[in-house]
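Marked as duplicate of an earlier ticket. Keeping the data here for the record.
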Amino acid sequence: MPADRASLGAFLRSRRDRLTPAQAGIDPFPGPRRVPGLRKEELAVLAGLSPDHYSRLEQGRQQTVTDEVVQALSRALQLDDVERAHLRDLAAPSSRRRWAGPEVAQRPDPGMLRLMGVLDHVPVLLLGRRTQVLARNGLLSAVLGTALEPGSSFARWLFLDPGARTRIVNWPDFAAAAVGALRYEVGRHPDDRRLDALVGQLRREDPDVARWWADQRVTFRTSVDKRIDHPAAGPLSFGIESVVGPHDPEQRLVVYTVEPDSPTARVLPLLASWTTAPRGPARA
């Protein structure tokens, strides 16, 4: 079975398992039930497909998946916008999903760097493909307690550095969302071998990643509030907002926002004065 069709089948099964007949608005089909979720036949009826057609989809034996089928399954499974986009990516033919040519090394978008300079009073991070750090300011390093040098992997720090779990109070919430974002990226670039190697390493070395990967959760941005336990500045609280670049959708500016006049906002200038890192973004 092609890897892309196996991923499609696994995602469909996971979404079907989480939706009960009552939630789907139908009466359960007669007969004993082994799982609380929808049966294949029930989902096929909801989507307007034949049971055989749906079985081929879930088993990875259906090579062509039309947009109409994707839309019907999205409605039947009650997918949100991000899950719909992910399903569309998984259903796309392999010929439409391959990289166009040799990959060119990513460079920070100049407009994003200028925006980082304006936002230098808060922690800011510019990420590229595979969570590669393209740029970050000194305040981000001071808050997270790690250099995160441009060219390094944010995901490897988040999952493989024990300091990340110590520094981020709500690490499980933030990390689970990061795994969902990686899955979304894999769906968009299934032939990216370096991305596949990164995910494989994280799944092997971190049981939490393996568990979250298995549940098929998908997210687009890790816009989860982050609480930091700083050894000198004390507890810090941030709202994480992501901005996608207008010229390169693979670049994402991650801004640590704060409430005006909050304890975190008042301590950030002091924390910035402690760091020896130069003002302005460090870039690749």
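See parent ticket for discussion. The longest helix spans residues 171-188.
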